[in-house]
Amino acid sequence: MGNTWTRLFGKTEARILMHGLDAAGKTTVLYRLKLGEVVTTIPTIGFNVETVSYKNIINFTAWDVGGRDKIRPLWRHYYQNTDALVFVVDSKDKERMEQARDELRQIVNEDELRDSVLAIMANKQDLPGALSADEVARQLELSSVRIPWAIFSTSATEGTGLYETLDWLSEQLRNRRAKKALVSPVAETIKDVGSSVQKLKLTDYLSSPYKTLKKWLITG
């Protein structure tokens, strides 16, 4: 399927924003996907950006934006031209689940992100006491989110759930690109036909105003 898609449409390029509160595991997720291994991380002050090629189908340019309090107001500066959001949640951090919900709600209501898709990583599932993905979804009130979304049980340190997330994102973005590729020519054709009809009517009127007006009155 991957080779067929690439032959038909080429490799999809996608811009992904990775958000979440500080210490949710965003940077660990990013470099696990990029390098296939766990790396030692420090709190992200600005952002990390990496390109991840997946199954020869899609290139994700992932922006891992710092999640500390003072940095969050700057998140909106990264929203333009975003195709997908990945919101990483520390499933063990029950005390800040409400805060994560509020931040996510603010993000998905941004006008610049209305055409994006959202993947939520219920991260750190390997730790004792972590909330299940279903419980994280309930506490984040995902049922009220208006853009397409899905939630995944993940562990960045063990690598579980990460590629399932990429599979879903790939499918969503490929389907959107295919739909756009099919709809755009149809829209242009309709536009061209409409323009031709208007020109034809104008030409008829200029060549024979009386006959044209008479025909319109009869058919109208």
UniProtKB/TrEMBL annotation:
- For Mg(2+), which residues are the binding ones? 27, 44
Q: Quick one: which residues bind GTP? A: 20-27, 67, 123-126
Gene3D superfamilies named in the record: P-loop containing nucleotide triphosphate hydrolases
State the UniProt keywords alphabetically: GTP-binding, Magnesium, Metal-binding, Nucleotide-binding
Extract the GO molecular function terms from the UniProt entry. GTP binding; GTPase activity; metal ion binding
Per its UniProt record, what InterPro entries does this chain match? P-loop_NTPase (IPR027417), Small_GTP-bd (IPR005225), Small_GTPase_ARF (IPR024156), Small_GTPase_ARF/SAR (IPR006689)
Pfam families from the UniProt entry: Arf (PF00025)
What is the name listed in the Swiss-Prot or TrEMBL entry for this protein?
ADP ribosylation factor 4A
Specify the species: Leptochiton asellus
What broad taxonomic lineage does this protein's source fall under? Eukaryota, Metazoa, Spiralia, Lophotrochozoa, Mollusca
